[in-house]
Amino acid sequence: MYAISSEELYSETQLLFNQKKYLKVLEKVDAYDKSEALSLRPLFLKGLSLIKIGRLDEAEIIFKQLTVEFPSNPEPFNNLAYVYFQKGDLKKVRETLEDALAANDSYRIIFENLGILFSRLASEAYKKAIQNEISVEDTLTKLSLVLRISNFEEREKILASQEKTNNLGTEIEHNEPETAENNLSPIVPDDFYQIVKGWASAWETKNVDDYISYYTATFRGSSKNRKEWESVRTSRINGPKSIDILIQNFSIVSKTNSEAIVRFQQNYKSNLIDSKGTKTLIFRKVDKEWLIHKELFTK
C-alpha cells in the first residue's frame, strides 16, 4: 500500500512512463491503496502502458472506464478509439471518435484521427470493390495516441488556434473555388451550405416536419429515444413567437463519399433567448441523401 496521494502517484508513474518502464507503471498503479479513488491521470497512464506492451483488451477496459467516469475529457475517448483501430474495428473507432467530439469538438487530434479513419474506410471500400483482383498496399497512417491529459490552459490554446486555422489541411472554406483536388465526392461545398441553410430555414419558419427530415432516422440527440427527441424539438421550435438564425464562417472540416463534418458559427435569436456559439454537424449519406447523424454545439 502507498501512503501517497493520487497526484503524487501520477508524478511517480509519469517518470516511469517517460523512461519506458511500462510494467513498473502497472505495478505502481495496481499497488495503490484502493481506499482512495484514483484520479484520471494515473489510470490514463496505466491504459497507455497497457497499449505500449500490447495488452489491448486490458487497455480497452481502462479507457472505457475513464470515458464513463470522466465524460468531459476527450483524451480517453481518443485512446479507446486507438485501441479499436489496432483491433481493426472501424465501426467502433468512428463511434468513439464521435463521442470524443461530443466531449470537446475543438480538439485537433480528434479531427486528425477522423480524417485517417475516413481514409481507411475509403481504402477498405476500394479493396472490396476490386475484389482483391490486384494488390493494394496499405500505407495509411495509424491513429494518433494522446499521451497526456490537457490542462485548462492547453485547451484554451487549442480552441484559439482552431479558430484561426485548421491543421488537418482538408478544411474547405465556403465560397472557395472548387478544384479537382477538393472534389472528393459528387457533392461540393456550396451544396452542403445550401443543405444547412435549408435546415436553418425550416427551423426559422417552424416547419417541424421539414426540420426533422434533415436528420437520420436514428438521431435522438441527448434524449433517451427518437420519440422524446422529436417531442422536445417540436416544443422548442413552436415555443417562441419568432426565430432568427444567422450562419457565419461556414466550413467543411472533413468529407468522404459517405460522411462529412461541417462547422459554422450559429447565432440564434428569439423573443425568449439569444444564443451564439459553434455548431458542428456530422452528416452521413443515407440512400444518396446527406442527413445529420450527430450535432454538437459549444458556446
CATH fold topology of the largest domain:
Serine Threonine Protein Phosphatase 5, Tetratricopeptide repeat
How many helices? 11
How large is the share of residues in beta strands? 15-25%
- What's the N-to-C terminus distance? 44 Å
CATH class wording of the largest domain: Mainly Alpha
How many distinct domains? Answer: 2
**CATH homologous superfamily of the largest domain, by name?**
Tetratricopeptide repeat domain
Describe what you observe in this structure.
By secondary structure, the protein is an alpha+beta fold. It is built from 11 helices and 5 strands; from the N terminus they run ααααααααβαααββββ. Helix 1 packs antiparallel against helix 2, helix 3 runs antiparallel to helix 4 and helix 5 packs antiparallel against helix 6. The longest helix has 22 residues. About 16% of the residues have low confidence.
